[in-house]
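We were asked to recover a plausible sequence for a given structure. The inputs and outputs are reproduced exactly as logged, with field labels preserved.

PROBLEM: sequence recovery
POSITIONS: 353
GIVEN STRUCTURE:
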């Protein structure tokens, strides 16, 4: 059996519900490729479905909500910022599975009463139980300060006969992140069918589950050719962030019963493109959002996919990616942020002079 069939077989044993439309499209960015002298391809996780808004959370939720069902849960708790894509995708997927979504959202940007936008608007249409928490720093710190609140609500729901499935920030448990091992196998399979041998694979990295899953997939495929590069979009400690993601990749491999473990250089991470911080835009990243829109007619968001795309383009311009290379950019979705508060979209919202 080849590596890819064996990888998929091991992953399937975890069990998953069907939420998205796979394989997602994989297409060439012709104009940018010509302009920069590279062979640039885009993997469209923004097209994963099942709603209009897609994104990278759907693959994780297929595995997580299958587990929730197996455990007999009827309620899902999850956590994020008020404009969290993950929270909205989790809520939509929970509804699809007949479960009640309860969202705990840290207000990095305060929602304005009477002008609820983007993911928070969708959360409200989905009828989620929404708890907005005052931000005390990163979303992770805000959540750590409120665990007593979550436990209290869980106990109340249990007393009413409900069972809660807990999904942490970003859905990035080894089980959730396993979805991206599948994404690696799927994408490199599409590339191979087209006769491509990619040298670089770029992704955005936040809670790290996507990168961990891709690293596990790369390891399952015994791929030592393709450099996997994560572009961080939140302020992280480089001393612990990368090692933690590698541990998660190994936990995925262990969970599915694979014998392989990741190499120390299975991926690399750049922390140079965070800008002022999470959900805080900056001009150079927004310029590359405009570049992709104006050259290829495609949209990115200012919080995740835009900063990651900017990081990749900057490395292409600086020659970190040599001319003639075949490069894959993973579009992780998130374009709802284009319709969020002005603090998040920055100068994208300004009319041209
Ligand atoms: C659009 C988008 N891209 C990328 C990411 C980062 O994925 P991960 O948290 O798995 O690192 C997220 C996470 O919320 C996201 O919403």
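RECOVERED SEQUENCE:
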């Amino acid at each position: 059996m080849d590596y890819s069939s064996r990888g998929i077989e091991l992953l399937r044993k975890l069990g998953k519900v069907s939420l998205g439309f796979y394989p997602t499209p994989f297409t060439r960015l012709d104009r940018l490729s010509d302009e920069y002298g590279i062979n640039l391809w885009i993997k469209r996780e923004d097209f994963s479905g099942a709603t209009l808004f897609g994104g990278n959370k759907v693959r994780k939720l297929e595995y997580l909500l299958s587990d929730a069902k197996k455990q007999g849960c009827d309620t899902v708790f999850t956590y994020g910022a008020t404009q969290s894509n993950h929270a909205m995708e989790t809520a939509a997927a929970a509804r699809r599975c007949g479960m009640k979504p309860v969202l705990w959202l840290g207000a990095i940007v305060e929602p304005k009463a009477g002008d609820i936008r983007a993911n928070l608007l969708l959360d409200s249409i989905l009828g989620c139980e929404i708890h907005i928490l005052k931000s005390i720093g990163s979303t992770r710190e805000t959540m750590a300060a409120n665990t007593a609140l979550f436990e209290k609500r869980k106990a109340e729901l249990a007393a009413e006969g409900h069972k809660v499935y807990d999904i942490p920030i970003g859905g990035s448990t080894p089980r959730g992140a396993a979805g991206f091992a599948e994404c690696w196998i799927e994408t490199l399979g599409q590339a191979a069918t087209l006769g491509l041998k990619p040298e670089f694979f770029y992704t955005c990295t936040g809670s790290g589950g996507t990168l961990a899953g891709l690293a596990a997939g790369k390891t399952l495929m015994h791929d030592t050719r393709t450099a996997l590069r994560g572009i961080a979009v939140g302020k992280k400690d480089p001393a612990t962030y990368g090692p933690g993601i590698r541990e998660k990749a190994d936990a995925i491999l262990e969970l599915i019963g694979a014998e392989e473990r990741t190499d120390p250089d299975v991926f690399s991470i750049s922390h140079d493109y965070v800008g002022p911080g999470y959900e805080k835009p900056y001009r150079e990243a927004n310029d590359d959002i405009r570049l992709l829109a104006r050259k290829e007619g495609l949209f990115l968001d200012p919080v995740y996919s835009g900063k990651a795309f900017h990081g990749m383009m900057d490395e292409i311009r600086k020659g970190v990616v040599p001319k003639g290379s075949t490069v894959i950019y993973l579009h992780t979705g998130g374009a709802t942020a284009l319709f969020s508060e002005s603090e998040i979209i920055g100068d994208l919202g300004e009319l041209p002079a």
